[in-house]
Design a protein that fits this description.
The complex is a heterodimer of chains A (306) and B (295).
Chain A (H helix, E strand, L loop, with lengths): L3 H10 L1 H31 L15 H8 L1 H32 L6 H8 L1 H4 L2 H11 L6 H9 L12 H29 L3 H9 L4 H29 L3 H6 L11 H11 L3 H9 L2 H22 L5
Helix pairs in contact in A: 2-14, 4-9, 4-11, 9-11, 11-15, 13-14
Chain B lengths: L2 H10 L9 H30 L3 H4 L15 H9 L2 H33 L4 H12 L3 H14 L6 H7 L1 H17 L3 H9 L4 H12 L1 H17 L2 H6 L8 H8 L1 E2 L2 E2 L1 H21 L1 H13 L1
Antiparallel strand pairs in B: 1-2
The chains are: A mainly alpha (306), B mainly alpha (295).
Chain lengths: 306, 295
């Protein structure tokens, strides 16, 4: 006759019961604070909820309003521009830095550790350093350029729309390059040196080795790293919030910072949620592109037929 | 000028690169690398030097701004005694440590279940964990703010401790799944035959073997929590509950008067703990970072 105790132990022997038990803590936290808000955010986007007041369903009104809103349009443009320019430069510089670090250098481990520092420290705090570097009156860049005789007035890095866009992009690149470089370096280290020896024997130039050995073998990891990089950049918030709060003239507002401004500072939770939800299709597109576009080509070039 | 110093080890350790002449090596490798390092490290140098500069030197265009003539501890003193900075530091430590351990606990169990218990649908659970990893906080913070408010958690440390795992658990679980996969299943089968329960196997066999993975996941989770900004900015409003990044941004900037010295000291002190921790565990951190990307 099974006592409660043996019934319990028997239940625990069942993998499905045990698995459910093991998954419980993670599932509770993720369902409550990730899946549910994801759904709730989508729903809020269809309502006119304000802080402190429950909203009612208003269909696509928020989206229609945002579609015609000049600031929202500008934020969309800024986000795409910011993501595109920063990602391309991060990729090029990151790959270059990875190739440099992959050479036999003295203090290699130390170099690698130091390079990753910008990625480790809180972005909000390193952004303050950039804020000071970009200061309109005491900028060290302006000071140096003045001394070299390149300019005769101080540059207002964050005060003029296009200058502000490029200044924030530069700060984003500064933070992102180490991530790209270290991940690609890990990829480079998995490439067997024998490929390069074989290529050398066949008389390949450095460029040919890079183009026909390194790049194809690195493509899968490039796809993953750049997907992450694009996702981080597209949804960036801290850097803009600290450096410009979206100004001057909303010229650096990203969708994330605008949704914060509308929802939290402005109190229109519904509108902010709609803006945040509007980012999802772009993120999905980036993931799909990387998954179906780049990955598949990698398999083909790797020699295994898909 | 670096010719003489760089020659011996450059030739020794270079494999096929001895074919490349040294001047060429300097132009193609060392000069670009030095430029990268300069740009990547300059903001830290600038942060540090500003933190020790007296106000007169900060606000003068005379002299050499790259150096500090009369270093002062006034900014750091102001930060520690005239602001709530010590509170913010304590909050950040508390929230990061608790959120990290909570996430590790949940992730170890989840990763083991997904990777080793092979229950019905484990593949799909693994996939959804990966997808959860791709959901950015800037999409979640508005509905999360509403939820935090409804749960009466607004303006508490608990709000942060409970929401940080949403980005920590997916990452840690994904990383630990990779580690668990590398542990031979035969070890577990032997233990099962000897009559060990699954929990005993997990605690006595898997966890000791997965210590490097646990450290990687832990360090990574800790730095992510330390750096978190948008949730801490949204879910907390009283000064004594703020974390360092949010406190520095929201409270040290007073109107149009920027106290650059204390701002930089705040940024420096807030970056140091995580940088020091990282320096002890670089290898683990990098393997966590790259491991998660490579999978």
């Amino acid at each position: 006759m099974p006592t409660p105790h043996t019934a319990l132990t028997r239940a625990l022997d069942n993998r499905n019961v045990l698995a459910a038990l093991f998954l419980l803590p993670a599932a509770v936290l993720l369902l409550l604070f990730l899946t549910y808000p994801l759904g709730l955010g989508t729903w809020l986007g269809f309502t006119d909820t304000k802080i402190g007041r429950d909203g009612v369903f208003i269909g696509l009104d928020n989206y229609e309003y945002l579609w015609g809103d000049a600031v929202a349009q500008l934020a969309l443009f800024n986000t795409l521009f910011y993501t595109f320019v920063a990602s391309v430069i991060k990729f090029v510089l990151g790959l270059w830095l990875a190739l440099l670090l992959n050479k036999h250098l003295p203090f290699k481990a130390l170099l690698r550790a130091v390079v990753l520092l910008p990625f480790i420290v809180p972005t909000a705090l390193s952004a303050i350093a950039f804020w000071w570097i970009y200061d309109s009156q005491f900028s060290i860049i302006s000071w140096s350029l003045m001394r070299m005789g390149v300019i005769n007035t101080y540059i207002d890095f964050l005060g003029e729309p296009w200058l502000a866009r490029f200044s924030t992009i530069a700060a984003n690149i500064w933070r992102g390059v180490p991530f790209v470089a270290i991940c690609l370096l890990a990829g480079l280290q998995t490439i067997s040196p024998s490929y390069y020896e074989a290529a050398s024997l066949d008389g390949a130039s450095d460029w040919q080795k890079f183009r026909y050995v390194t790049l194809p073998l690195l493509t899968p990891i490039i796809a993953v790293v750049m997907t992450f990089s694009v996702l981080f950049t597209f949804t960036d918030f801290q850097l803009i919030y600290v450096l410009t709060r979206g100004g001057p003239l909303n010229s650096t507002h990203l969708m994330a910072t605008l949704s914060f401004q509308r929802a939290i500072s402005g109190g229109s939770l519904g509108e902010g949620a709609a803006l945040a939800t509007a980012m999802v299709p772009f993120l999905l597109a980036a993931i799909m592109f990387s998954y179906f576009g780049l990955q598949r080509r990698a398999w083909q070039q790797g020699g295994t037929d898909k | 000028m670096t010719d003489a110093t760089a020659t011996p080890e450059a030739i020794d350790s270079q494999g096929m690169n001895y074919l490349v002449s040294l001047p060429r090596q300097i132009v193609t490798v060392y000069a670009p690398l030095a430029a990268f390092l300069f740009v990547l490290l300059f903001p830290f140098y600038w942060m540090a030097i500003t933190a020790f500069k007296p106000n007169e030197e900060l606000l003068s265009r005379e002299g050499n701004p790259f150096w500090v003539n009369n270093p002062t501890l006034a900014h750091i003193k102001k930060l520690l005694f005239d602001t709530a900075y010590p509170d913010w530091l304590w909050n950040t430590i508390l929230v990061s440590v608790v959120a990290t351990f909570l996430s590790l606990f949940a992730s170890v169990l989840a990763a083991y279940a997904i990777e080793r218990l092979r229950f019905k649908g484990s593949r799909y659970v693994g996939m959804s964990i990966f997808l959860a990893y791709l959901v950015p906080p800037s999409i979640l913070f508005i509905p999360l703010a509403a939820i935090v408010y409804k749960l009466n958690l607004f303006d508490t440390r608990l709000a942060l401790i409970l929401t940080y795992p949403t980005f920590l658990i997916p990452f840690c679980t994904w990383l630990l799944m990779g580690y668990f996969k590398s542990i031979p299943i035969e070890l577990e089968e032997c233990a099962l035959i000897d009559g060990a329960s699954r929990l005993q196997i997990l605690v006595r066999i898997i966890l000791p073997l997965a210590v490097p993975g646990l450290i990687s996941a832990g360090i990574f989770a800790f730095t992510l929590s330390w750096n978190e900004f948008i949730y801490a900015l949204t879910f907390v409003s009283s000064s004594e509950v703020k974390t360092v990044p949010v406190g520095v941004i929201t409270e040290l900037v007073e109107g149009d008067v920027y106290h650059w010295g204390s701002l930089m000291a705040g940024a420096l002190l807030g970056s140091l703990p995580v940088a020091i921790l990282y320096s002890f565990f670089v290898e683990y951190y990098v393997s966590g970072l790259t491991g998660a990307v490579k999978e």
